[in-house]
Write a structure and sequence with these properties.
Blueprint lengths: L9 H18 L3 E6 L5 H7 L8 E6 L5 E4 L1 H11 L5 E3 L20 H9 L6 E4 L7 H11 L3 E4 L5 H4 L4 H24 L6 H14 L4 E2 L4 E4 L19 E7 L1 E3 L2 E2 L2 E7 L4 H20 L6 H14 L11 E3 L6 E4 L13 E9 L4 E10 L4 E3 L8 E2 L1
Length: about 400
């Protein structure tokens, strides 16, 4: 008998809507609109549990009353009615995939003008806030502007993300499972690895194990790089055959019921250039120092400055893209980022990926582990092989 899957409760989704509405009332916001597609699903999934495929999806939250979920076409409507934790689901004809058909099945479409006029029967609408503005298609935004009339439209892509910074106990349990799956699949992939395999074969092995353990998908398009491709922070697995005397970078993350795990490890086969091994050793030092330093009450700036100081100590200037950690949850990378550009401090129930990426333009390396900040310290979610792995 398989393991019972865990989910966010419908009660928690309702609490999230209520919390957002209280903030809206305090901030003078009448409507919040958030938007999603399959690859950028986080805010809509946070408020409803719904993960769209093919079509777009949006949620309109009024400052009081019930939210409305919008999606395109009869297929997505039926899908959302079954899986979304929002009772009022409607079809907006612009929320469809790029090559949508002309539907034979009758639909009851709504424009923003119709929906906002419904809200106006019970409340005035003076200010509409749009989150995820950078992902909304132009024609949908134009329809919103038409329906808004004289109301002011403001863009604040962080408005809902602010509520996602601190994770609930249910969220943390789902994250722990995502990291557990990620770690075990990575362990089995390294045990399976040998020279002569292609990069995509290792990715396929990891995916096979992760899915068999209950992953619903990946936290991002996972990949394996080797040889002269490791200097790239973003890449994809290729046909390249893994040889002797080189490093293989594993970049893996399982998604479990919306929540993202992650684990990155380099693996050395045979002997590699001294310069490349030195980069790996410095990355490991940065990882371990960051894990030691991160505690409740410690400022982001202190963590970041210590990271930069270590890089400078070894003469590694300009080899990193960003600070040593970033928040995670419904997105593998989400705000806040640990740097010295603000005055944030680490607090309980924040969840981070400690993400050490260094590249000198020829070689690159990434170590990444998940952590939860607790009342007394740090709960490290991935512990596998925090040292140089050699085959």
């Amino acid at each position: 008998m398989g393991k019972i899957r865990r989910y966010i409760s419908k009660e928690e989704y309702s609490q999230r809507i209520e919390k957002l509405q209280k903030r809206m009332q305090a901030d003078g916001i009448d409507i919040v609109l958030t938007h999603a597609c399959e690859c950028e699903s986080a805010n809509v999934r946070y408020l409803s549990g719904f993960w769209a495929v093919f079509d777009f999806v949006g949620i309109l939250v009024p400052r009081e009353g019930h939210p409305i979920l919008l999606t395109g076409g009869p297929e997505s409507y039926d899908f959302a009615v079954q899986f979304a934790n929002i009772d009022d689901v409607r079809i907006h004809p612009m929320y469809v995939e790029t090559c949508a058909p002309e539907w034979d099945k009758p639909i009851n479409p709504y424009s923003y003008e119709q929906i906002l006029n419904e809200f106006r029967k019970n409340m005035s609408i003076n200010k509409i806030l749009v989150a995820n503005s950078n992902t909304i298609p132009h024609n949908i935004f134009e329809d919103l502007k038409k329906g808004a009339g004289e109301a002011e439209i403001v863009l604040d892509d962080n408005y809902i993300i602010k509520d996602r910074v601190f994770k609930s106990p249910q969220e943390i349990e789902l994250l722990k499972e995502a990291y557990r799956i990620t770690e075990e699949a990575t362990k089995q992939t390294i045990e399976y690895m040998k020279p002569g395999m292609r990069e995509w074969e290792l990715e396929a092995k990891w995916r096979s194990v992760a899915y068999s353990m209950g992953a619903e998908g990946t936290s991002y398009p996972v990949w394996v790089t080797s040889g002269d491709k490791t200097f790239q922070s973003l890449c994809k697995s290729t046909e390249r055959v893994i040889g002797e005397n080189e490093m293989v970078q594993l970049t893996f993350g399982a998604k479990y019921n919306g929540y993202c795990g992650n684990l990155c490890r380099p693996v050395i086969i045979g002997k590699i250039p001294q310069e490349q091994e030195r980069l790996i050793l410095v990355s490991l030092e940065c990882l371990n120092e960051t894990l030691t330093l991160m505690r409740p009450g410690v400022s982001f700036a202190e963590v970041y400055d210590r990271f930069q100081a270590r890089l400078h100590k070894y003469g590694f200037v300009g080899v990193n893209l960003y600070g040593p950690a970033h928040s995670t949850g419904l997105q593998e990378c989400e705000a806040p980022w640990v740097d010295n550009r603000g005055n944030m401090v680490l607090m309980p129930n924040m969840v981070f990926n400690v993400d050490i990426w260094l590249s000198n333009g020829v070689y690159g390396v990434r170590y990444e582990d998940g952590v939860v900040v607790t009342e007394s310290g740090l709960d490290i979610l991935t512990n596998y092989a925090r040292e140089i792995i050699r085959l």
